[in-house]
Amino acid sequence: MRHVFLDHQSATPVLPEVFEAMRPYFTEHFGNASSLHQHGLRVRDALKRARQQMAALVGADSEEEIFFTSDGTESANLAIKGAAYANERKGKHLVVSATEHPSVMSSVEFLEKQGWTCTRVGVTPQGMIRLDELRAAITPQTVLVAVHHVNHDIGAIQPMREVGKVCAAANVPLYVDCEASAGWLPIDVKDWGAAMVSFSPHRFYGPKGVGVLYRNRKARIVSVIHGGVQEGGRRAGTENIPAIVGGGLAAEIARARLPQRIAHVAPLQRRLWEGLRTKVPYIQLNGPEPGPDRIATNLNLSTEFIEGEGQLLLCDMNGIAVASGSSCVSKSLKISHVLGAIGLDHALAQGNIIMTLGEGNTEADVDYVVETFARIVAKLRGMSPMWDEFERGVIDSVIAPTGRGKSFSQHAADVSGKPVH
Amino acid sequence: MSETYTLYNSTVMEHFMNPRNMGDLKDADGVGEVGAAACGDIMKISLKIKDGRIEDARFKTFGCGSAIASSSMATELIKGRTIDEAMAFSNQEVVDALGGLPPVKIHCSVLAEEALKAALEDYVKRHPDAAAKSTAGAPVPA
Ligand code: FES
Q1: Fewer CB atoms inside 10 A, N or C side of chain A?
Q2: Within a domain: A31
Q3: Would you tell me which CATH number, out of the four given (1.10.3210.10, 3.30.420.40, 3.60.10.10, 3.90.1010.10), belongs to the domain B10-127?
Q4: Which residue puts its alpha carbon closest to atom 1 of ligand 1?
């Protein structure tokens, strides 16, 4: 069986040269960067190099603006809570886009329980932030605006320069979560006027266990993890040196290979979407069309009349690794909040599948996925009462309405006795 | 990748991959369609009933792997049962027969129980005489 990994948004394989660079830091160069002897000083040197590599990836002036954490989630927590606590006296209001990653959303919810308020700025049906709403949301009490570069679910690339201008005009620091874009799109903290940017190398062929936070010297944050004075006092805890070394090299390679990587995945993305839309009836792409507004790695699909977990499991049993934002897949039994924020019909959110490409994927992989996915959809539709009811004209399609029958949501509400979320 | 890891146990996976009794019954005597309030999924069970016994059962499910496996197993279990026995059917039987479901997926087996009961109710509504006969000796517990 062919194995096709289409979940690069969750993880990527560590490059062999990255793995080799990490190896000595597990064994020979095992020192703790806080130690004052040779062993400590040697790894301090390695830390500094990794900081320079990370700074170069985001266009930062100095490696002193780079902090290491344990992953992207911790970086987001540090950015949001760190800025909120540091600027408490100035105000207790935050502004975020409605489609931010759960690490941002949950940090904000945590602060809301402690007396902060937060305005969630809406997005267009394509997932683009509404700049006028953003402008209107900022108040004199606002201490931070958080807008991600690229959405983790639907791949929408946000207009960072415009967002940056709005924040600069209001004199509020901007934090940009670049988790879904780093290594795959150019990042320029100065061009955007970003006060903070976060990302993690495991999205671009580096190891897990390290996250990065860029923080402009002028932006104030306080530590949310307490202990020693590692990372300039902004993040206590022993640095994960092997992962940092590996992450630094992965960042350097990503910067150098970015054009090739895009040139490799962009045609595959188009081929995959063209193939699926041709072979699978009643399928739609969520988020912007492939092109300048969408990251070249991501496809977010809704296949009507079937649910996402079944699709995911059958893909997996056929060697294809994908993700889904369906409520059945989530432990909370809620659809992805991103799909909710773009106003996606519940029926379509239930049939959601997310495919994310990487440099290891080939045209033959894509063709295999198209063929296999079409078979899987047919199999699940054969099992679905909704497909049958659609064919009999009892319910209508959301993607291509025929004008016959009631909506899926109405039908689901009728049979469950409750409106669907 | 030599070993295959699965999200559910092998019985659940087997029923998901090769569901039993999938489809609709022509001239069904009772049809029940219910939706899960939790996740918004839908299950439909059709029954053929003769002389107070479930002769045949079919399902169609719009739902997760656990829901598909639950409906497959439920239709297997209830074939041959009397209406009274089927009325007392509980989702726990499905869970046990499947060798367990993850806690967050128990509600999918409840959907199978509800779909079955809705189909039985539909039968009773459509065949009041036959239903009265079958339950004459033993009243159906509420
Ligand atoms: S049917 Fe939605 S979780 Fe099982």
Answers
A1: N
A2: yes
A3: 3.90.1010.10
A4: B63
